[in-house]
Design a protein that fits this description.
With about 350 residues, this protein is of the alpha/beta class. About 35% of the residues lie in helices and about 20% in strands. Helix 1 crosses helix 10 (about 295-315). The two termini are about 20 Å apart.
């Protein structure tokens, strides 16, 4: 009863996910386990996730077993689990716009390497779904992989802010193909976006008027290096900003997004949040918060649920946008709702009380 998963992009996030599947393989249903929201998601345990294919552009990763490629530079994710040989050899994917001009050296990208037929590999490996972990700004490459998933009869889980699940034309393609799609832009377990959403909603629910807010993020992984070019993070700003603004029914001046690349931080992300507001008697309330996380593992605990939700949708013959898991797990879902409501949607979906 395995879940056959293919990955596009073997970076830090993929490495954290792969480690997590091994690390939590013996997790029990009823015990409290740090970092896991569901040891079992419906009938699926974390250990039911099986990686069957992986695509990369880094010449240092291509041709290696996935268990080795996941540690190759520039990956700098924290190691929390040994991963045995998987038998999955990382294959060359197309570069397209997946590598920014200033990132060829960091990504060890080699234009001379001929990419494989991604659709055929997905068919040959009988992948249930393709998880998209390409760099931010990979608009054409993301659409390419989404189309490959459609052509191969795979579901698609879009972890980056290049919009697929939230775009009606793409959602219709998956619905017409009888395949589920989840996304877009993964929301970490306790990350900058979820924290910003919760405190903003708290202020609003308690009758406090928000005047302005910002969220500044710095980090040292290749995600932050990639986003030093402003035109590659436009959708990222949209995704993170809408995730917060959608909870407040009036306009609040907002600035959210990656702010700087600090190499020595490696895979740590530092977030600064400020909320300016006024309260009873029109008196001011100011919130300043700082959050420091291991960036990639912080998202893996959410992706592990998104994968299993997508598999349940496949089992039940559900196609198109998965509204519950997308609203709960992604920054730019098809429908934005408060997080407690999205959580209820997910639990109802697991129990079969909600269709999607």
């Amino acid at each position: 009863m395995g879940i056959r998963v293919a990955i596009a992009g073997v970076g830090n996030c993929a490495s954290a996910l792969i480690q997590g599947v091994e690390y939590y393989k013996d997790a029990k249903r009823d015990e409290v386990i740090p970092g896991v929201m569901h040891a079992y998601f419906g009938d699926y345990h974390i250990s039911d996730v099986e990686f069957v294919a992986a695509f990369e552009v880094n010449k240092e990763k291509i041709g290696k077993d996935l268990s080795e490629a996941m540690w190759a530079p520039p990956n700098n994710v924290a190691k929390f689990s040994d991963v045995p040989k998987t038998g999955v050899i990382v294959q060359a994917g197309p570069i397209m716009d997946g590598v920014a001009p200033h990132m060829y050296e960091s990504f060890r990208a080699d234009k001379s390497i001929e990419p494989v037929d991604v659709t055929q590999v997905l068919k040959d490996t009988k992948a249930d779904m393709l998880v998209n972990y390409l760099p931010v700004g990979s608009a054409k490459a993301t659409e390419y992989y989404a189309q490959c998933a459609l052509d191969a009869g795979c579901a698609f889980v879009n972890c980056i802010p290049e919009f697929i699940a939230s775009r009606p034309e793409w959602a219709k393609k998956f619905e017409d193909a009888g395949l589920p799609v989840a996304g877009d832009d993964i929301k970490s377990q306790v990350g900058a976006t979820i924290l910003h959403r919760v405190v903003s909603r708290l202020f609003y629910d308690r009758g406090v008027v928000l005047d302005s807010t910002y969220q500044l993020n710095i980090g040292g992984n290749t995600d932050f290096e990639n986003m030093t070019v402003e035109n590659r993070l436009q959708t990222k700003r949209v995704s993170k900003t809408e995730a917060v603004q959608s909870l407040i029914p009036y306009k609040v001046p907002t600035r959210i997004g990656p702010s700087d690349y600090v190499p020595f931080l490696e895979d740590h992300k530092v977030c600064y949040i400020r909320i300016n507001s006024h309260s009873f008697g029109n008196l001011p309330i100011t919130l300043d918060a700082k959050l420091v996380v291991n960036d990639s593992p912080n998202s893996a605990g959410v992706v592990i649920d998104a994968i299993r939700a997508t598999k349940i949708a496949l089992d039940r013959g559900i196609s198109g946008q998965l509204l519950g898991i997308s609203s709960y797990s992604f920054k730019h879902p098809p429908v934005q709702v408060p997080d407690d409501e999205a959580h209820r949607w997910v639990e109802d979906f697991i129990e079969g009380k909600r269709e999607r």
